[in-house]
Amino acid sequence: MASSFEHSGRRWRGCLAVATGTLALSVACAAPRSTLPAADQAALARERRIQQELAFQVQQERRQRLADLSWPLRRDGAALCGDRVAAGFGFAFDSSGRYEPGERAAVSSALGIGLLPTVTTVVRGGPADYADIQPGDVLTHVGRYRLNEGAAGVEQGLRWLAEFASSPPPFPAVTVRLERNGEPYVQELVPDLVCAYPVVLAESDAINAYADGSAAYITNGMLRFTESDEELQVVIAHELAHNLAGHLTDRQQNMAVGGLLGLAADILLSRATGVNSGGVLTAAGLAAGARAYSQDFEREADYVGMYLLARAGVETAEVARFWRRMAVEHAGGIENDHRSTHPSTPERFVRLDAAHAEIEAKQAAGEPLLPNRTDER
Fold first, then answer.
1. Hey, how many other C-beta atoms are within 10 angstroms of the C-beta on 109?
2. pLDDT band at residue 99, thresholds of 50, 70 and 90?
3. CA 55, CA 47: separation in Å to the nearest integer?
4. Do the Cβ atoms of 216 and 83 come closer than 8 Å?
5. Where are the domain boundaries for CATH 2.30.42.10 in the chain?
6. What is the 3-state secondary structure (H, E, C) of the chain?
7. CA dihedral sign of residues 149, 196, 144, 138
8. pLDDT tens digit string along 213-263?
């Protein structure tokens, strides 16, 4: 039987192994005292596969939901997007070859995709939906071009679809060849004109959404937080509005101006006092530039987002109530704070109510549903 000294030595060695890289140990680490059952490796492998499949299935369901809800906003709001419009075919395809080898069996089982580009998403009410294309159909050709397997085939399909629809609208029909249950068939797709800002699922549990000037991103956490499709469309419309209003470009310009002013102040300080500030004033100028008009950008995104919703036939009367629920999650946003990048939640509620009244008046008068503007850009 091992001595108490030997037991103690084993515990210390385990503690040291766990604590590698720390500066010092002042007490011995405690170890579990239960005798644990062995984890069967075959059972672990089966469970890993089950969980991978569930993860792929749920993420695909969320992408489908985002695609369905964002499509009418992007299509019916195209008139608000200026020259940032594109041909939208209303479907997405993927290949198991784009995944890690250890994931391919699970993604093939969960989504029904193989190495050839396979349809994963068909937008409700989009061109592919009207052409009776279905998830699981294998895309073999775009026009006369045959697609390869793997990531290369997916990239080819996207590129050739874009090339066929590169002329100004009205877009010509694009012939695509597919296979369903091994049987080939041909369809013609006439794309819709949509805002050229895709809506992307972001892998985060934070209750958040954001735009980067090229796309709108909605987190898993925001999907779980929203209680209805209409609430989720409110969030999508707000982020799309940031993009079509050019807010990212404006923010970058403001940061550049603030940074230049801060740099000039750093240089003047150094020349006058001989003190090197280490770029503190430049950093402060960049931060001030980033905050400049940030609350106004949020107000404009709320306002323009309301018009995107109305143009897509979404009822705007209850949109403002979203900010009451958000206030429950982020009570700090209830009070006004000039240092914040966002207006208070009460202000957003009141302004959205006013925007709803404005939209109702235009609808009653038969006027175009276009946001009121002070300039044209």
1. 16
2. very high
3. 12
4. no
5. 46-195
6. CCCHHHHHHHHHHHHHHHCCCCCCCCCCCCCCCCCCCCCCHHHHHHHHHHHHHHHHHHHHHHHHHHHHHHHHHHHHCHHHCCCCEEEECCEEEECHHHCCHHHHHHHHHHHCCCCCCEEEEECCCCHHHHCCCCCCCEEEEECCEECCCHHHHHHHHHHHHHHHCCCCCCCCCEEEEEEECCEEEEEEECCEEEECCCEEEECCCCCCEEECCCCEEEEHHHHHHCCCHHHHHHHHHHHHHHHHCCHHHHHHHHHHHHHHHHHHHHHHHHHHHCCCCCCHHHHHHHHHHHHCCHHHHHHHHHHHHHHHHHHCCCCCCCHHHHHHHHHHHCHHHCCCCCCCCCCCHHHHHHHHHHHHHHHHHHHHHCCCCCCCCCCCC
7. positive
8. 999 999 999 999 999 999 999 999 999 999 998 867 655 555 454 544 555
Task: For residue 52, give the amino acid letter.
Answer: Q
Q: Residues, the chain, total? A: 377
212 vs 26: CA distance, rounded Å: 49
Structure tokens at 153: 């085939």
Complete DSSP assignment for 301-312: HHHHHHHHHHHT
Q: What angle do CA 184, 146, 163 make, to 5 degrees?
A: 115
Q: What is the pLDDT of residues 341-356, one digit of tens each?
A: 788 999 999 999 999 9
- Reading the block at residue 180, the tokens are 């369903």
| Interstrand relation of 183-189 and 199-202 (parallel, antiparallel or unpaired) | unpaired
Mean pLDDT confidence for 155-179? 91
Predicted pLDDT of residue 18: 52
Tell me the two tokens of residue 82: 């200026």
Residue 143 has pLDDT above 90, yes or no: yes
Number of CB atoms found within 10 A of residue 190's CB: 15
340 compared with 209, residue with greater pLDDT: 209
Quick one: tokens of 330?
A: 């982020």
> Which of 2.130.10.10, 2.30.42.10, 3.90.190.20, 3.30.230.10 is the CATH number of 46-195?
2.30.42.10
Q: Please give the average per-residue pLDDT across 303-312, as a whole number.
A: 96
